[in-house]
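pinned: reference chain
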Amino acid sequence: MAGDLSERLLKGVGKVVVGREKEARLLLVAFLAHGHVLLEGVPGISKTLLAKVFSSCMGLEFKRVQFTPDMMPLDIVGGFVFNLKSREFDFRKGPIFSNILLADEINRAPPKVQSALLEGMQERQVTIEGHTELLPEPFMVVATENPVEFHGVYPLPEGQLDRFMMKVVFEYPEGAVETEILRRNLNGIDLIPVEPVLSKEQIPKLFRDVNSVKVSDEILEYLSSLAKQTRTEERVILGASPRAIVHLVEAARAFAFLDGRDYVIPDDIKELAVPVLAHRIGLEQSAILKGTSPDTATIIREAMEKVRPPR
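pinned: its C-alpha cells
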C-alpha cells in the first residue's frame, strides 16, 4: 500500500502541478510523520498551488489563511464572541481548526501573529483566556514564505522554525518544465479535478504502520553523532536541537515506509537531513558578513561526510 500511495499521490499532484514530484513526496513524508512543512521560494513558482493540490489528494479538510501585516492572532485561532441570544460569550473557532492549514506567506505577518501557531503546531491544541480546544486529527501546517531579502517580510523566530519538521526550498523550474507549465495554463490547469488518493478512515492505519518501522541502536547513535557534529562546527552558533533529531528519525521512518521497508537505513537519513535540519542551523554572523561561511545546506552535507554511517 505504501508504494502505491506514493505513486497515486504523485500522479494526482502531477495532473495540476508540473515538475514538483520531489516536493510532493516530502509533503507526504512529513504528513505521515505528523510534521509541519515550510515551503520557501520566490513568488509564482507553485508553492501555494502544490499545498492546495496535496490537500485535495489527501481528502482532508483544508483551510487557507493569507498572512498580512495587519493580521491579529485571533484571525487564526479564533476567540470568544458575544452571543446576543444567549447573552453569553461563545468560542468561535478560527481556520486553524482544520486538518491541513495553509499559512500562505507566513512571514508577511508580524511575529506575534506567527507565534499564535506555536501551541497548535507543538501540542495540537489552542488555549485562549484559559479555554483549551483540541485541534482535529490529523493536523498539519503547510506554510509558504518568500526569501527574507524580499520587501515586507519578517524573519521567522528560531523557536518557530524548529517546529517545522521540514523546510522545502523551491527552485525555478527547468526549461522543459516551464514550457509544460505554459502549455497547461493555456488549457486552464486549475479546472482539472483532483480525486483523493485515500479516505480519512485509512489514515490512522497509515500512522500505525509508520510507527511500527524499526530504528536500530546504530542508526540512533549515527543521528546523535550527526547532531553533535553540527553543534561543534566553528562556523555554527546554533546546531541541530534534540527536537530536530527527533523530527529527522520520524521523517526517516515515514520515508522508509513509503519505500516499502519496515526499518530505517542510513540512506534515509542522508536523503532527509538537509530539508529537516538546514533551517534550524544558525551561522556565525561575522563569517556571514565576511562571505566566508557556506549556506546551512552545505554545512549539513559536510557534517554527513565527517560522520561515518553504520553498516
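why pinned: The chain has a mean pLDDT of 87. The two ends are 28 Å apart (CA to CA).
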